[in-house]
Design goal:
The protein contains nine helices and seven strands; from the N terminus they run βαβαβαβαβαβααβαα. The chain is of the alpha/beta class. β5, α5 and β6 form a beta-alpha-beta unit. α1 packs across α7, α3 runs parallel beside α4 and α4 packs parallel to α5. It is globular and about 55 Å long.
């Protein structure tokens, strides 16, 4: 029997994108019981309603993953409701508009690192005692293809995802006989990541998004591939043609890969990338 079947999961960023699709598939196909984490409670309520006859498999806890204390509060909540987590999936993430580092303010740097990196640190630190009580514990960290190769205009996002990748892989080495740890590196995916308006404007404008979507993977396909790698207990998974190409490019020319990617972005002449060189 597949080891994923009937597991208890805590999943961040559950209300949209990859997190939402993972929630639906893990519940409907593997009968997992999931506690979904997100700041937007209404989106979590909508997801529970959308699950229809499977709604009993889903519960939620609305909170800001960036605050360490919230994770300790969640730990207490899980004890109160007698929910023994087997798997923690750190999927929450945000991306700021493409821009040169000199144009990025400190508040945005703090926001991106806390969401993309520190939230995973906080979650693992707070929930590890509970996870270790499981007979088959697992930690799944969703990093990004942006951590594989230098990409001008994404300095803070890429740095936060690179930090998560390195941390996750070290954790795999330290815990490999006790806890299964997996690092997922997805490429461009057709999610609302590019519609995040926390930074005052969309990351990629509507016109440019039509072009980006041509080489982006659907959320349905990406979530299927992520689950497949988890099912086979892969320690590291690079998913998507663009992600694999970036990985190969960096291995072939580590010093000049960033310059090549920059030239490609310049030649695209897309408005979303113009602030990289301003």
């Amino acid at each position: 029997m597949n080891w994923l079947f009937d597991k208890n999961i805590v999943l961040t960023g559950a209300s949209s994108g990859i997190g939402k699709e993972l929630t639906i598939k893990l519940i409907k196909k593997y009968h997992c019981k999931i506690i979904g984490i997100s700041r937007t409670e209404q989106n979590l309520i909508n997801l529970k309603n959308d699950l229809n006859e499977f709604s009993d498999y889903f519960d939620y806890y609305a909170m800001d993953v960036c605050l360490s204390q919230n994770w300790h509060n969640l730990n207490e909540h899980l004890l109160e409701i007698n929910f023994q987590p087997d798997i923690l999936i750190n999927n929450a993430g945000i991306m700021m508009p493409f821009s040169s580092f000199s144009n990025i303010n400190e508040n945005d740097i703090d926001k991106v690192f806390k969401t993309n990196f520190f939230s995973a640190i906080y979650s693992i630190k707070a929930l590890m005692p509970l996870l270790q009580k499981s007979s088959n514990p697992a930690i799944i960290n969703i990093s990004s293809a942006a951590a594989l190769c230098c990409m001008p205009g994404t300095s803070i996002y890429s740095a936060s995802k690179s930090a998560l990748e390195t941390f996750s892989e070290i954790l795999h080495c330290e815990l490999r006989k006790k806890v299964y740890v997996c690092t997922i590196m997805p490429g461009f995916t057709k999610t609302n990541l590019f519609k995040n308006k926390e930074f005052g404007n969309e990351i990629i404008n509507c016109q440019d998004k039509k072009i980006v979507d041509r080489f982006s993977m659907s959320v349905d396909k990406m979530s299927n591939k992520i689950i497949k790698n988890i099912k086979h207990k892969k320690a590291r998974a690079i998913i998507g043609f663009d992600a694999k190409m970036l990985n190969i490019l960096y291995k072939l020319m580590p010093q000049n890969s960033g310059n090549l990617v920059g030239k490609i972005l310049k030649k695209s002449k897309l408005d979303s990338f113009k602030n990289i060189w301003n």
